[in-house]
Amino acid sequence: MKKTKTILAAMAMALAFTSCKGIVDSGLTDGTKSARAAATATSSKRVVGYFCEWGIYGAHDNYYATSIPANKLTHINYAFVGLDPSSQAVQIFDPWATTDIVYPGDKWDTEYKGNLGQLRKLKEEYPHLKVLISVGGWTKSNGFHAAAANATTRARAAENLTNFVVQYGLDGVDIDWEYPGVDRPKDGNDQYDMGAPGGIEDKENFTLFLKAIREALDAQGRKDGKKYELTAAIGVGYDKIAVTNPGDYCKYLDALNLMTYDMHGAFESNTGHQAPLYANMNCGIYSDDVREKYNIDWAVKKFISEGVPASKIVVGLPFYSRGWNNVSGGLDFDGDGVGDGMFGTGGSTLSGKWGVGGQSPYFAVKALENTPGWVKYRDEVSKACWLYNRGARELYTYDDQLTIKTKCDYINELGLGGAMYWELDGDDWKNGYDLVNIVHESILNGVDFGTDINPGDNGGDNPGNDNPGTNPGNDNPGTNPGTNPGNDNPGTNPGTNPGTEIPSSSKATGLPGTPSLEQTSWNGEASFGLRMNMWWGNNGTVAELYENGAKIASVTFEDNSPSAQSYTFNVSGKANGTYAYQVKLTNNFGTSVSGTVNYTVTKGSAAAEPDPEPQPEPEPEPEPEPQPGDQGGDQPGQNQPPAGGDTWAVMGTYTAGQVVSYNGANYSCLVTHVAYSESWNPAETPALWSRI
Question: Which residues are catalytic?
Fold first, then answer.
């Protein structure tokens, strides 16, 4: 797994959190639990998201367990704990984050302290969800070699891990040994890295180690009347596979989470895709073995050839980038006679949000896509993309929405066990999750595991809102193109509206904290939710939702400053069109206003209009020009399109909201994309298209 970079919290911040008073009782009502249980569904595939101990700190934008979209995945792996090389005791690196922190909105004596407590609470809300403790990772794999060395140490480690699982109410263990059979010294550039001793004996001992843990978990499961899971994060380099026995050790695992990323990065002087689906043999800068084998397809088929059932193989997806500075050369992908950076050379000191070497979350790289100087390229052979700034000589290799969708299609086509992503807080989570939603729709077929409601939300019933709306947590896939934080929409700013009546119970000592606003459904639907969050600061006592500058709903809060406040407004029955929404949060001291969310409805009723003046018949529109890759006629078996839509074609470029026809039906585009093959057609890609 990726390197762990923990930012320790200041003591003052810790004291502030532990003094929080919740605006909502942290305990779940029987009705909530019953609703969750009723919504529980099952899926033959798994979607695994890694939630990191250090995600709650500022370097990772304070990503809490309460932000996890638990209704869109089956498993959460909590990363990481270690094993003491001498005693095989389970080591928690940051107890404050893992077991002690009191989350915003919870009482000081809550039973849900720490990230592990919050994950237990999440499991109670979503009974389908499994939470595993992930052991090791890049920086904490120093204890594995000793733990696997003999029967005594294996049994001791297995017992300690099983006891840890039971103590914290978890569902199993995920072993992330990086890497068996490799003797790796400490990374001098990483203060947290402890290295990872290894030797040829690990080839057999790794299998025996997993066997011991499997037996201990099974024995505990017989006592508890439940199934405890054992999974492992597995390196996919051909050299890593060669020093283990996948066909043997897979017998003891419920799933192999393949780390199908980090195949190239600034640890090399050549540029390359960090997670290509297929090999591009046109690249001449790497050895034949690297060109052929450093890709997902080769790794998956290698594990299958070693005897691993396809149903146990879970493909890893990176929600982060790698990159280079001082880039030069590369293949000419766009045909203009100039190299486009990829498969060229580069330096190792590109600064990223998460670390040197261009390590940045997906959402940070996504923000560069529309920034002057940056150009996105695609390798149609490898099914990979990258951003290149020729002037700055900087390059990022990453997965965007289309590469994620392509990999999900691959997983389904090969009958694999599912998808895993590192890590949850890398997605564009503040704007509704791009990548998580695509994986959910593609791998889990959008199965409804219950509504994603943060503490403080009203569960879909919205007192004071004349439009009762639908339940938030729409599982439709795609991006959130309508969200535009910080846009005040001149002329529609709710802060200019007349005063708000404030209840006398307000206890705030200053202006309320600035709220955020996010949509809980994809653009297109006529009914949707808008979630307001104010994470820290003086509370507001009244929150008002404005649509195009006019107030349409309000809610009154209990003031428990400085705890978080959260509420979902529901809107329903909207006509087609684009609507600008803001939230105004008010107390006795004044008002704070959120940024603007622009929501576009394409599946509503036609907007009401006055009777038009008689108009002449419109001239017939000319036939559309053929799209690149069009065969000059209808696709085989395709009927002529209904009026009102362009004909869908391979290699066509489609924008969100565009209407096309395919096989006699009309479809509305959900995500701006290029249709790279026939398998991207609207009828087979619900993550990209919605039938009208």
Answer: 178
